[in-house]
Amino acid sequence: MARFDEVKDLILSLEGDFDKFYSKGNQAAGTRVRKGMQDLKTLAQDIRAEVQNKKNEGEK
């Protein structure tokens, strides 16, 4: 569950920047949102590979 908590924490950390960008048009917040979304993509790919490896270990 630690990996799930990492995903939640990352998403929650972006909430303020999403609001600033979409509600107030703050361009710097948009840059932070883009970076955070890239970090989320990387984290998701890492978790996906981890799950696949565990699954493959169980099939042996």
TrEMBL record:
Q: Which domain of life is it from?
A: Bacteria
Q: Read off the Pfam families from this record.
A: Hc1 (PF07432)
Q: Which GO terms describe its molecular function?
A: DNA binding; structural constituent of chromatin
Family, according to the entry, reads as follows:
Belongs to the histone H1/H5 family. HCT subfamily.
Its biological purpose is as follows: Might have a role analogous to that of eukaryotic histone proteins.
What name appears for this protein in its UniProt entry? Histone H1-like protein Hc1
List the source organism.
Answer: Dyadobacter soli
Lineage of origin: Bacteria, Pseudomonadati, Bacteroidota, Cytophagia, Cytophagales
